[in-house]
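Table S2 (continued). Query chain:
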Amino acid sequence: MSSHLSWMIIRNNNAYLLKKRNINKPFSTEPNNLINVSSYRFSGLIHRKSVGLVAAPDSKGFTVVCKKFKASHKPAKSVTKRTMKAGPRRSLYKLKRLLKANRFRSDIRKAALRRASAVLRSQKPLPVKKARAKKTE
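Corresponding output:
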């Protein structure tokens, strides 16, 4: 089935759709949706090749979830996972290379890098603020 036909079937009714939040822009909680917006472009369910990013289980780095087209009729084998925790700069570079080498869709590369950056930024410890000393007279 083509991706356009799949989108026409599931765009208004699916389990991942969040319509109550905002009327203008419905959100989606589906896997492999990089920006969590319900749209044809970012849908992770209908495209042959899709990429998802989640935080690593040990909260150090992120896990790249890629969907393979060749095993699309075998759901357990159609997903590959790679954990990247070599450091923020190196991990982002490896992700960029991975997406380019495997010829994933070029229109979602920037969204994938932004999502990975956000995940890495969320894992960074917050700076501790020093308490100011009180002046006594």
